[in-house]
Design a protein that fits this description.
The chain is of the alpha/beta class. 30% of the residues lie in helices and 38% in strands. The structure holds zinc ion.
Length: 123
Amino acid sequence: MGIVRCKVHGEVGVNPWIDEKIVNNIRFDYQGLPPEKEKKIFVVTLQCVFDESEEMEVFNINHYISEENIYKYKLKHLYRISTEEEEAKFDKKIPQLGVTCGKCFEDYIEKYNIEVVREWEIK
Ligand SMILES: [Zn+2]
């Protein structure tokens, strides 16, 4: 995770796993332009299980995806990967991601009372 200098929050950690569409809306909002606000943001969890050495490495990466793209890309709430090939496949499966200040992202969710959805069914 990198560090960014945010105009509002100073030096803070970035969240690089946010749908670019949402990142643009946060930017519009900051500039006082009426953003096409999200009502819901969906969390797509990538569970990484790498067993390359004797040590098993397990970690989750949460991706925050707009409602539109969840249906467009037909995404599930959980993916498990254990190889770099699978990781590359996953990267092709999800929409373009953008980077934003982690705190601005939290503020945006709170300001517009956006529902964070963690489980769903694709119809
Ligand atoms: Zn910020």
